[in-house]
Amino acid sequence: MTDRSITVNGHPWQAQEGETILEVAARHGVEIPTLCHDPRLKPAGACRTCLVEIDGWRRLAPACATPVTEGMSIVTENERIDRHRKTLLALYMTDHPQSREESERGAPDQLFDMVARYQAPSDWGVLENKRQGRPDDRNPYIQFNPEACILCARCTRYCDEVESVSAITLAQRGSETTIATVDAESLLDTTCEMCGGCIDVCPTGAMAEKIPLVRGDKPERELEKVRTTCNYCGVGCQMDLNVDPDAREGQGKVVKVTSPPVGTTTNDGNLCVKGRFAYDFIDHPDRLTQPLVRGEDGELHPTTWDDALAKAATGLRGVTERHGPDALGFVSSSRCTMEENFLMQKLSRAVFHTNNVHQCAAT
After folding, report:
1. 272: exposed, middle or buried (C-beta count within 10 Å: 0-12, 13-18, 19+)?
2. 50 assigned to some structural domain
3. How far, in Å, CA of 52 to CA of 74, rounded?
4. How many structural domains are present in the chain?
5. Is residue 307's pLDDT more than 80?
6. DSSP state string for 137-194
7. Same domain, yes or no, for 166 and 64?
8. Are residues 192 and 316 in the same domain?
9. Are residues 279 and 344 part of one domain?
10. For the chain: N or C, fewer Cβ within 10 A?
11. What average pLDDT does this structure show over 352-363?
12. CATH of the domain at 59
C-alpha cells in the first residue's frame, strides 16, 4: 500500500492508503472519542462524537468515516471541537436516564463516562423519551431498554453486517426512532440467533441481558472478569466470566458472560447463544463435582479418581478380552482441549488397538 504523509495536531505521521483518521490516530496512541464505532462494522458516522477539524474543510469531519489523503492536516482537540462535544453530549442526556444507578442495570453506560470526561452541561432539562420498546418480548435472553438508547445503530449494523440475519432495525422517525423488529414481533419469531452481539456492541446498555436484570445482579463494572475458553464446541472462543464475589458466602458466582475486546482473541469478540447465555450449568444441582462408581447396591457412590479410573480400565479391558478391541468405541468431546482429544485417540489406538475413535467436532 502507498503511504500518505499527514499532520495530526502538528505532528507529521505516515498513514496507509485506505485508513481512516480514527484508525491512524488509534495506531499512534491518540484517542478520539466515539460511541457508534466498532472495528467489526462499516463506519457510519452516526454519533458525531468523533468530529475533528481538517485544514481547508469548512465543517468538522467524522474521524471514523473520513479516509486520510496526502497532505491532510488534522486537529483532534481545540476549542471548537470541545464546544461541539459538550453541546452534543448535553443533547444526548436530555432524553437519557439522568443517573448511573438508573441506567446501568447491566453493562456500563459509556455516555456517562464521556459526559464526565468532557464536562458536558447537565442543566439542559429532561425531555420525554418517545422511543418504543418491546417489554413483552418473551425471548429469555435479550432485553431492550429504549430510554437508554442513543440510536448509534451499532446493534442493527452488527446484526446485519456480522451475523447477516437482520433481525432488528431502526424504525419510526424523528424522536420516535427506535430499535424494532418486524411488526414488533418477539425476537423468537424473527431471524434472531440470540447470539447477544447486540448486547456486546451497545455503548449504553440499552441492549442488555435479561438474566441479570431478573436476578438483580450488580452492574458489570462491579463484577470481576475471568478470561476463559468456551467449552461448548471446538472453535475455542475466548470469553470473560463475570463473577460476583459476594453472590455466595465464601465463594463467587458467575452471573454474566461478556466478550473480550475486539482484536484481542481469535473470535474477535463474537460469541454464540450458548457461549454467552448457557452458563447456568456451572451451578446446576445435577452437575457432577466428584467421581462416582456404581456399587453392588446398584447406586452411584463417591470415590477417588484412582479408584474410578481403575474400575473404568478394568471394564474396558474386560470388553476387549471377551469381544475383541473393535467392540470398543471411543468418543471425545469438543469441550475438551486439542491435547485432551489427542490423548483420547492415543488411548484408543495405542492402548486398546482400535481405530473406533471419534470427536463431535471432527477435528
Report:
1. buried
2. yes
3. 7
4. 3
5. yes
6. ---SSEEE-GGG-----HHHHHHHHTS-----EEES-GGG-EEE-GGG--GGGSS---
7. no
8. no
9. no
10. N
11. 84
12. 3.10.20.740
CA 10 → CA 7, 136, 170, 251, 299, distances in Å?
A: 6, 54, 40, 53, 77
Contact 238, 265 (CB under 8 A): yes
Residue ranges in 235-328 assigned as alpha helix (H): 273-277, 305-323
What are the grid coordinates assigned to 293, written together? 462408581
Both 276 and 204 in a single domain? yes
Q: At which residue does the C-alpha cell 458472560 appear?
A: 257
For residues 177 and 278, membership in a common domain is answered with yes
| Residue 301: domain span | 292-359
Contact 156, 109 (CB under 8 A): no
Sequence-distant (≥ 6) Cβ neighbours of residue 351 within 8 angstroms: none
Q: Which helix (H) or strand (E) covers residue 131, if one does?
A: none
**CA 166 – CA 182 distance, rounded (Å):** 10
For residue 260, the domain's CATH number is: 3.30.70.20
Inside any domain, residue 335: yes
For the four alpha carbons of 264, 266, 269 and 275, in that order, the dihedral sign comes to negative
Amino acid residing at 329: G
- What are 47-101's pLDDT values in tens digits? 999 999 999 999 999 999 999 999 999 999 999 999 999 999 999 999 999 998 8
The whole-angstrom separation of Cα 36 and Cα 43 is 8
Q: Which of 279, 277, 305, 278 is nearest to 291 (CA)?
A: 305
- Side-chain half-sphere of 292: how many Cα atoms within 13 Å? 9
Asked if residue 331 has pLDDT above 90, the reply is yes
Q: Which residues lie below 8 Å from residue 96, measured CB to CB, with a gap of 6+?
A: 103, 111, 129, 147, 148, 150, 204
The reply to whether 257 and 182 lie within a common domain is: yes
